[in-house]
Design goal:
This protein is α+β, with helices and mostly antiparallel strands and 326 residues long. It is built from 10 helices and 15 strands. The protein folds into 2 domains: 6-145, Aminopeptidase (3-Layer(aba) Sandwich); 148-298, 3-Layer(aba) Sandwich (Aminopeptidase). Residues 9-166 form the N-acetyltransferase domain.
């Protein structure tokens, strides 16, 4: 193995037959060996996506996948209402035995080149402190720190929030509060009613009924919809899920489809009261009624031009549902 060199590898766009060796490598490299949901999770993200199938690239040695890189398709609306095609840099892995050969960089730059030629506009992501320097060296730029907002359920919740500074669990906790989101968004009237309150300014996700149905469809994430008025979706609603973060129970506010701050604040408080969550968390750059600023705590959004220039940093109006780490 020590004699393998970068030039011994074959780098190309992935094809379905690559799954036979790519999936075991991904499971092993990313610590997903015992996750029973992993394959179906990847299928939901990358095959069922309302914005299109995710393109991916592989590095092979003797016909076996030893490196993998994929980009999740996404679409934004600009402040002028035009569609901006984008991809999000997500799943990537290298077989531990092949690290040090520059596979991550090679696959990423190959993907960037191919996507640019295909006419995709930009790539975006929120890399962690370990991976961010590598992206910056490949032409990514820091766009802005996304502003986080929180609402604690009470004084005791502040302690739970302060002492649970660990990554949140991936899979959600069970709750019967609100409606199952996948069932709710299968109802055209409910979806149409909530979309009357979709964000109308800034650079925001192109929210369609198909997008909302896909985005909330994966069962283990247990997304819920809480309506302001059960019989009138035009009154607004909120998409959320419950997840563990250390000893705290966190209500992640994915979307707020509300007409004003009063409705939004009431819905956040209802989520906390009815679920018993210690606090609610979301982003304050989109609809953020009821969430108090948490200075200098948000993820760093990075972008890279492909066939278009990234938006101005001040124009981004994202929600937690747009950048949730999944």
């Amino acid at each position: 193995m020590s004699a393998v060199k970068a030039e011994d590898l074959v780098v190309r766009e992935a094809v379905p037959d690559d799954d036979a060796t790519a999936l075991p490598m991904l499971r092993e490299s990313l610590g997903k060996v015992d996750d029973p949901h992993y394959e179906s999770f990847l299928r939901w993200k990358h095959k069922d996506n309302a914005f299109g199938v995710s393109p991916a690239w592989v590095a092979l040695h003797d016909g076996v996948v030893v490196g993998y890189r994929t980009f999740l398709r996404w679409e934004f609306l600009t402040p002028e209402g035009k569609t901006l095609r984008a991809v999000r840099a997500v799943d990537t892995a290298t077989d531990p035995a092949y690290r040090g050969l520059g596979i991550f960089r090679t696959l990423t730059l190959q993907g960037v080149a191919d996507l640019t030629r295909a006419g995709d506009g930009i790539v975006f992501n929120t890399p962690n402190d370990q991976s961010r320097p590598g992206y910056l060296k490949m032409g990514w730029s820091l766009a802005r720190r996304l502003p986080v907002g929180v609402m604690p359920r009470g004084p005791r919740a502040l302690v739970a929030m302060a002492t649970s500074k660990v990554p949140a669990s991936l899979w959600s906790e069970q709750t019967e509060v609100g409606l199952d989101a996948a069932t709710a968004f299968a109802d055209p009237d409910l979806t149409k009613g909530l979309l009357t309150h979709a964000p109308q300014s800034g650079v925001r996700t192109r929210r369609t009924p198909e997008y909302l149905l896909w985005r909330t469809a994966f069962g283990p994430l247990r997304y819920r919809v809480l309506l302001a008025k059960p019989d009138d979706p035009t009154a607004g609603g909120m998409v959320f899920r419950l997840r563990r973060r250390g000893d705290a129970l966190e209500a992640a506010i994915l979307e707020q489809f509300v007409s004003d701050a009063i409705v939004g604040s009431r819905l956040v408080r209802s989520v906390l009261h009815e679920t018993g969550a210690d606090y609610a968390i979301g982003l304050r750059s989109g609809r953020s009624a009821g969430l108090l600023p948490l200075p200098k705590q948000g993820p760093l959004l990075t972008t890279r031009p492909l066939a278009a220039s990234p938006p101005s940093p001040k124009d981004w109006a994202l929600t937690l549902g747009d950048i949730e780490l999944f």
